[in-house]
Structures are given as structure tokens and as C-alpha cells.
């Protein structure tokens, strides 16, 4: 009910000012009649002319040629005020008439010397999730084949770099997860380049050096952390984040040193680039701060804690699931699978691993040891577990399970989990990596997403995957709309 969702707004509207749809049609058949009956002069009563970019004279529109950029107009009457809503019909740039393009970007018409500048308008719907083939297609455009190993190494260094900043700022772990999501999403649509001038912390403080932070991966990481801190309601001043980040990269850096190329201090010059990158990043995420479904506005680590309590999982397996989640934060899995499906997949893997020993610095308290009898065994939980109880599509959960197992099969030696598990598994007498391989063989026949619809030909025709023009706002207008699905998402689930 509106009265429950917006009580303060409804109380401020007098009952007499709100009319039913039948009363509105009876009294005012059109907005023009209402303007004629209302003798008061208000800003919304001024005559507004809807122009068509293809019309030579905006004051004399041609009724036979409707505006292609406007699909419908609706008027809502609340307390003698009109709200005009125009819905853009096309997601493409407004087409230019053939033979009517001039060198200055204007559309000329026959029999008239006047010209109207073309104002492109585009609508972008956010796409929080991609397929693996789409990510591979985008990386082939932004990361050269020779730099892909270097990109992986830089990404791992950036992950540790951001983790150290978060520890000093005392941010929750969800800020790190969001920042890594933004960092990996940024390089889907921007080229990965290494800048020698800024790769070592921006230089040695010499005022004569050139400091270009626009392509520096660590500066981009700081920008992602700055935006993630605002999204996750852990706001800190940008200067505080810069100070900690610069000290971690270079202890001898002089932030007050004037840079001759810009006339600004080092920290102000860096700040200028960070804000410029943030403007690009906002367009990349399409101003979608939900990172997926709006109903699941929480991080994977919080969901793991909630699921473990719900399923009565003991402390040891809960910590194992939390450690697995920490490793997965640096991977692009959050760009493919929603957070609640990732959390459930991690718990399923933890229950199947069920190690006898975990090296933990923190031991369970006496109260937790007394409640150990209230927890269920791993086998009992697995037998009663149903993904539908957690609103998780089974296909997406399976997709996350296979991805996580592949990650540990190939990168277990550099994972954080390698620190907490013994080198040799006491049950099998083999290294822990073999346990993941055996577990994957048991999941070989599970149903995962079908990516046959994501062929290279279709990806090339996908407008969303094209190179984005960051200057579109200065040329025309862009409208960003929220969405919790990506293209062909339902079709892949049905197969």
C-alpha cells in the first residue's frame, strides 16, 4: 500500500487535491483544457515546444513526421502540478537523415538556410551479470594477449593493496568485495596499460617528472575503493584514502610537492585524476549501485553467516566458507553469478570438503563448544539442502561450484586457504589439491549454464558490449536504467 510505503508524502497531500481517474477525465479531458481554466501563472504553465531533431524550425513542427525519440507522454495530476514523463523509444543514437549531414554535425533541410544541431540521445540499461564468453570477448578487446599474465599479477597485487587500505581504514570486508567488482568491471570496457611514470607510486616526488595517473592500475583501484566506500555507507574523505594508499606504495613520497606540468601538488593532481576516473566508472556501472538484484542488497560474506546460522553449521565449517569467499573476491565470479548463489555454492563446497583440521588463530569459546551438539553433521545438511529454499536457481549455484573448484585446482598454492589447511590431507594422505580434483569429478554431471547463445557473432552485434563514448553527455543526453538481468539470461537458464 502507498500509505505504508510513503506515509509522510501522502499526509502532505490534501484529500481534496487528489482526484480519481474518472473525475480527472470528466473535468479535464486534456492538459490543455486545464491550462485554459487555470488563470494562475506558474512555471509549468509556460508553453513548451517539443522539438524534433530532424525539423528545420523548432517553432513549426511538422505533424506528419512524429518525433522518433519520444514514445509517449503522460500527465499526472497531484495538487495542481504536472509531472511530464517522456520515455525514450530508441536505444541507438538519434538517426541522421540521409543526405542531410553537414561537416559541423548539423542537419540541413531543403528550402531552408537554418540548421538544427543534432542532439544524440541514448538509453543504457545496466547489466550487472555477464557470461564467461562475454567477459572473454571484452578482455580480448581491452587486454592484449601478451599482457594477460601481467594483468593477472597486477590484479592480485591490487587485491592485497586494497585489503591493506581497508584494514587501516577499518572498513568492513564488503567494501573490498565491491571495490574488486568495480575494478574488474572497469577493465571490461577500458584498455589495460602499464604507465611507467605512475607504476611505482607516481614517481619519486620530482617536480619535473610527468605524472599521468589515468592508466595507472593502482590509481584506478583507489578510485574503485573510493566509490565502493560511498556505495557501502562507509564514507571517508578522499584525501584520507589517498594518504594511506600513497604511503603503502611509496614511503618517501612528498604529497605537497608541486608538479610543474599542472601547477598542482602531487595529492591534488592525483585527486583530479581520481575524480575523472570515477566519472568514467559511474558510466560503466550505469549508475547501478545494487550490483545485481535489488532484493539482495548484501555481500557474500554476510550471506554466508546468515546461511550457516540457518542451516546450523558449526564454527569450523563456517570459517572454512569465509576463507573460500575471501579467495573468490579477487575473481570475476561476482560478474557472472549473483551473491546469494555464490554464498550457497561456497557452503556446499565447504560441507563436501569437511576437513578434520583447520589452522585457526581464534579458538571457539566455551559457549560455542557447549552448543556443538546442537549443530548438524555435514552429511545431514547436504541431504536436506535445497537451493529453492534460498531462492537460488540451481543452474547458477552449479555454475559457481564448478568455477570455485577450477580456481583451487589451478591456484591453490597461492590461495589464502593454503595457509589454513594442512599440506597433506589426513584422510587421503595426498595434497589438498587432489581433494578439489576428486570433488570436481563428482560434480561433472551437474547442470550448468548453456552459453551457446553467446557466440562471437552475437557479441559483436550486442550494443552493450561496444566501446562506450564517455563524451556522449556533452554531445546529447544519456539515460541510465536499472536492471537485474543481463541479455539472454532467461534463455540460458531454461536450457
UniProtKB/TrEMBL annotation:
One of its GO terms (molecular function) is cyclin-dependent protein serine/threonine kinase activator activity. InterPro entries: Cyclin-like_dom, Cyclin-like_sf, Cyclin/Ssn8, Cyclin_N. Residues 55-66 have a biased composition (Pro residues). Keywords: Cyclin. One of its GO terms (cellular component) is nucleus. One of its GO terms (biological process) is positive regulation of transcription by RNA polymerase II. Gene3D superfamilies: Cyclin-like. Residues 29-41 have a biased composition (Polar residues). The keyword Acetylation does not apply. Residues 1-68 are annotated as: Disordered. Residues 160-283 form the Cyclin-like domain. This is Cyclin-like domain-containing protein. Belongs to the cyclin family.
Amino acid at each position: 500500500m502507498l500509505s505504508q510505503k510513503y506515509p509522510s508524502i501522502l499526509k502532505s497531500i490534501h484529500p481534496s487535491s487528489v482526484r480519481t481517474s474518472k473525475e480527472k477525465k470528466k473535468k479535464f479531458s486534456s492538459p490543455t483544457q486545464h491550462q485554459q481554466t487555470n488563470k494562475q501563472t506558474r512555471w509549468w504553465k509556460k508553453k513548451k515546444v517539443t522539438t524534433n531533431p530532424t525539423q528545420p524550425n523548432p517553432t513549426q513542427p511538422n505533424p506528419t513526421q512524429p518525433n522518433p525519440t519520444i514514445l509517449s507522454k503522460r500527465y499526472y495530476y497531484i495538487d495542481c502540478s504536472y509531472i511530464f514523463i517522456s520515455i525514450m523509444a530508441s536505444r541507438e543514437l538519434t538517426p541522421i537523415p540521409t543526405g542531410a549531414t553537414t561537416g559541423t554535425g548539423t542537419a540541413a533541410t531543403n528550402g531552408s538556410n537554418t540548421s538544427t544541431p543534432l542532439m544524440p540521445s541514448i538509453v543504457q540499461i545496466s547489466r550487472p551479470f555477464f557470461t564467461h564468453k562475454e567477459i572473454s570477448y571484452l578482455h580480448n578487446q581491452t587486454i592484449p594477449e601478451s599482457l594477460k599474465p601481467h594483468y593477472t599479477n597486477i590484479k592480485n597485487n591490487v587485491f592485497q593493496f586494497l585489503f591493506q587500505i581497508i584494514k587501516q581504514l577499518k572498513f568492513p570486508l564488503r567494501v573490498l568485495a565491491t571495490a574488486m567488482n568495480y575494478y574488474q568491471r572497469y577493465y571490461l570496457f577500458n584498455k589495460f596499460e602499464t604507465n611507467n611514470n605512475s607504476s611505482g607510486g607516481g614517481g619519486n616526488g620530482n617536480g619535473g617528472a610527468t605524472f599521468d595517473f589515468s592508466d595507472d592500475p593502482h590509481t584506478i583501484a583507489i578510485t574503485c575503493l573510493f566509490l565502493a566506500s560511498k556505495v557501502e555507507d562507509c564514507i571517508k574523505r578522499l584525501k584520507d584514502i589517498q594518504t594511506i594508499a600513497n604511503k603503502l606504495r611509496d614511503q618517501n613520497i612528498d604529497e605537497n610537492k608541486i608538479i610543474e606540468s599542472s601547477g598542482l601538488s602531487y595529492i591534488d593532481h592525483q585527486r583530479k585524476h581520481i575524480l575523472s576516473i570515477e566519472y568514467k566508472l559511474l558510466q560503466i556501472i550505469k549508475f547501478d549501485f545494487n550490483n545485481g538484484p535489488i532484493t539482495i542488497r548484501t555481500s557474500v560474506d554476510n550471506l554466508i553467516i546468515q546461511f550457516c546460522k540457518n542451516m546450523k553449521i558449526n564454527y569450523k565449517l563456517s570459517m572454512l566458507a569465509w576463507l573460500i569467499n575471501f579467495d573468490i573476491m579477487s575473481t570475476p565470479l561476482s560478474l557472472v553469478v549473483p551473491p546469494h548463489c555464490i554464498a550457497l555454492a561456497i557452503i556446499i563446497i565447504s560441507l563436501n570438503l569437511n576437513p578434520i583440521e583447520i589452522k585457526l588463530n581464534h579458538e571457539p569459546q566455551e559457549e560455542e563448544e557447549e552448543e556443538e551438539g546442537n549443530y548438524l553433521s555435514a552429511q545431514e545438511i547436504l541431504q536436506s539442502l535445497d537451493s529453492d529454499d534460498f531462492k537460488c536457481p540451481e543452474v547458477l549455484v552449479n555454475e559457481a561450484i564448478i568455477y570455485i573448484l577450477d580456481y583451487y585446482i589451478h591456484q591453490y598454492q597461492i590461495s589464502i586457504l593454503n595457509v589454513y589447511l594442512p599440506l597433506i590431507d589426513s584422510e587421503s594422505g595426498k595434497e589438498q589439491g587432489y581433494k578439489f580434483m576428486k570433488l570436481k569429478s563428482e560434480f561433472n554431471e551437474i547442470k550448468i549454464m548453456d552459453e551457446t547463445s553467446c557466440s562471437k557473432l552475437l557479441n559483436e552485434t550486442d550494443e552493450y558490449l561496444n566501446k562506450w563514448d564517455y563524451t556522449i553527455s556533452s554531445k546529447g543526453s544519456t539515460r541510465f536504467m536499472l536492471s537485474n538481468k543481463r541479455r539472454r539470461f532467461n534463455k540460458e537458464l531454461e536450457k
